[in-house]
Request: fold
Amino acid sequence: MHSSSFICRRRALKFVASALCATGLPALHAQTVTPIRLALIESMSGPFANTGEAVFRNLLWAVERVNARGGIKLPGGNRFLQLDRYDSKGQNEEALSALRAAMDDGARIVLQGNSSATAAALVDAIDKNNERDVSRRVLFLNYSAVDPVLTNERCSFWHFRFDAHADMRVTALMEVMKNDASLKRVYLIGQDYSFGQAVLRESKRQLGQLRPDVQIVGEELHPMGRVKDFAPYATKILASGAQAVVTGNWGNDLTLMVKAAREAGFNGSFYTFYGNALGAPAAIGDAGIGRVAAVADWLPNVQTRESEAFYRAFRERFPKPADDYVHMRMQLLVEALAQAVERAGSVDTVAVGRALERADVSLAGQGGRMRASDHQFQQSLVVGMMDRQGSPGVKFDVEGSGYGFRVVRTIPAERAEMPTSCKMQRP
Reply:
């Protein structure tokens, strides 16, 4: 189960000045300092492998930044972070096996996000483990699993979410949709699991409240990661007369869907959670200009000097166009963890968890705070509209595609915040 894209050679001399290992440890200290192990449990193979690799790059960069400034200050001496990869293969059972392997390897911080169903399974397993085995308690830091139940009725002291949940993201998209007077017909489509269902449910509810004049002409869920040909879905979208599609699809399920819709002749808009990368802009092409919106915690074309420097630094670290997918929230997650460990003064899981409840971090002009009542990170959101690189507000493109996203709406953290039904049980 345990893998890494680069293997630190065990036979190397203790002080060999080699390149960084994929763990993020400085080569000089990789074998002389006991690190704080972070276990990334993600799809590193299968149809969503590209999403797992994108996450790994982001977290690795964040870990390298913490280590480059000397690691985390603790009373017994500084500790570095070590990022290890565990392949879930897109399956919940594999993710649970990976969790057990990570714990056996000494990891007490688990990172995951690219499936709300997997996140729910991990929360359940970690809750049971932490009650049964106090010597091996684990914290779960979630960067992308956005089913609202994870910080509502299924909230857990051991789980912290650093992404805006689905209802918050839908609300941000509605900030744009509600003002489009020409919009009369909408098609809702998503992946058939908890997250996809939540997106459709909340989109339908908010459209009914904000735009009762808009007709929902289609509402459909499809198998996640198993559809190879979206042409039949595109045909239904076209036949419905929809002017816009709302979807939470991600990875290949999004790219293949928008490509099929374009090829079928659909000229309407896409309101998406993840339409700003991983091949989607290139697949959409000119048909997406002014028609594809994406909601995010940050976008490369946020027009501040700090934001531009942050983005350029990431591209210098990962210069390949295919690697151009950076998440501010993942950087803030690692910064919040480093802050919490230093505040706790130890790596004790409960102490770090209590410190994480008070996390308040900023980076490159962006920032956020953890809400202690449900462990939902509160941060501003932006909505971007696809346009050609070089257009006003589109300095940077995506993945060398020639298309980027102009920020058309910014939702401050206090407006993005939503109530919670969480009844937290604390140790």
Q: What stands out?
A: Residues 2-164+311-316+323-378 form a domain with the Rossmann fold fold (CATH 3.40.50.2300). Confidence is low (pLDDT under 50) at residues 1-21. The CA atoms of residues 117 and 194 lie 6 Å apart. The chain has twelve helices and 16 strands.
